[in-house]
């Protein structure tokens, strides 16, 4: 380094004015290396990056222009620094555009992710709703069946005895109960509404079937034997509720 290129004395004066005690302190404050500081002292300012020059100027509390005037080779360094600064400024819009694009893509991905989560939540809610509907329907069906079964059990004696009594009343005009028969039509309609069917009619003749019929005498009756219904039985579809009680035809 020639004496003509040495800028150490000028740097020391600026450091003293900025209350910087050592070259190391200047490097720390400007966040530059000792090699970069050596280039500054040698008058090789053009070899420094613009960020380093700007940081040195701020640390020494002078403008970039003044720093170049003291440590640079005047016009050549000014042109180099201006070119470096111009390239940096020119690259900033492009970098900003790239950053904005990346942010937009990230925002779109987040929106898609939110929509997918929302769709999953909607699907889960629909599934739960369908499950609750099915569960409610099962509960209603179970409650209805239980209610009907309790009614059937409580009215068992009436349903089994009444058809026989009604048949006898209809056969005898002098019996007062004959006038009550039409009043029991709602009960018969209730049975139909529950899909409960009578097995035979009182006084009807039919072929004996042990699945649907029961002999009143307790004696064994052969399948297909003609019998007479004494007490009506009941069935619900193919399910047997009460067998019809029958006698052999005499």
Keywords:
single chain; 250 residues; alpha+beta; 434 Repressor (Amino-terminal Domain); Nucleotide Exchange Factor Grpe, Chain A, domain 2; rod-shaped
Structural notes for this entry:
The protein has 250 residues and is α+β, with helices and mostly antiparallel strands. Among the domains are: 3-73, 434 Repressor (Amino-terminal Domain) (Orthogonal Bundle); 155-248, Head domain of nucleotide exchange factor GrpE (Nucleotide Exchange Factor Grpe, Chain A, domain 2, Roll), CATH 2.30.22.10. It contains eight helices and seven strands; from the N terminus they run ααααααααβββββββ. The chain has helices at residues 8-17, 23-30, 34-41, 50-60, 64-71, 75-154, 156-171, 185-193; strands at residues 196-199, 205-207, 213-215, 226-231, 233-236, 239-242, 244-248. It has a four-stranded mixed sheet with strand order 2-4-7-3. The chain has a three-stranded antiparallel sheet with strand order 1-5-6. A hairpin with a 2-residue loop joins strand 5 and strand 6 (239-242). Helix 2 (23-30) packs across helix 4. The termini are far apart.
Could you provide a short overview of the structure?
This protein has 250 residues and is of the alpha+beta class. The protein contains eight helices and seven strands; from the N terminus they run H-H-H-H-H-H-H-H-E-E-E-E-E-E-E.
Percent of residues in helices: 55-70%
Name of the top-level CATH class of the domain at 155-248: Mainly Beta
CATH fold descriptor of the domain at 155-248 = Nucleotide Exchange Factor Grpe, Chain A, domain 2
The CATH architecture of the domain at 155-248 would be: Roll
Question: Which superfamily, in CATH terms, is the homologous superfamily of the domain at 155-248?
Answer: Head domain of nucleotide exchange factor GrpE
Unreliable segments of 5+ consecutive residues:
74-79
Strand content: 5-15%
């Amino acid at each position: 380094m020639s004496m003509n290129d040495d800028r150490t004395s000028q740097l020391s004066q600026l450091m003293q004015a900025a209350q910087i005690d050592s070259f190391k302190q200047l490097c720390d404050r400007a966040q530059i290396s000792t090699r970069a500081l050596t280039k500054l002292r040698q008058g090789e300012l053009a070899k420094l990056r613009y960020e380093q020059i700007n940081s040195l100027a701020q640390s020494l509390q002078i403008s970039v222009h003044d720093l170049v005037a003291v440590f640079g080779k005047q016009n050549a360094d000014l042109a180099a620094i201006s070119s470096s600064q111009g390239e940096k400024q020119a690259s900033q819009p492009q970098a900003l555009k790239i950053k904005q694009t990346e942010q937009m893509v990230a925002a779109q991905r987040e929106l898609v992710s939110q929509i997918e989560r929302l769709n999953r939540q909607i699907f889960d809610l629909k599934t739960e709703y369908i499950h609750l509907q099915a569960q409610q329907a099962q509960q209603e069906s179970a409650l209805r069946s239980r209610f009907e079964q309790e009614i059937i059990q409580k009215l068992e004696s009436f349903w089994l005895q009444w058809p026989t009594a009604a048949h006898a009343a209809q056969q005898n005009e002098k019996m007062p109960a004959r006038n009550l028969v039409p009043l029991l039509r709602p009960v018969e309609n209730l049975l139909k509404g529950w899909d409960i069917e009578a097995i035979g009619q009182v006084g009807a003749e039919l072929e004996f079937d042990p699945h649907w019929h029961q002999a009143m005498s307790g004696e064994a009756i052969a399948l297909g034997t003609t019998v007479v219904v004494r007490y009506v039985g009941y069935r619900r579809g193919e399910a047997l509720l009460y067998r019809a009680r029958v006698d052999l035809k005499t």
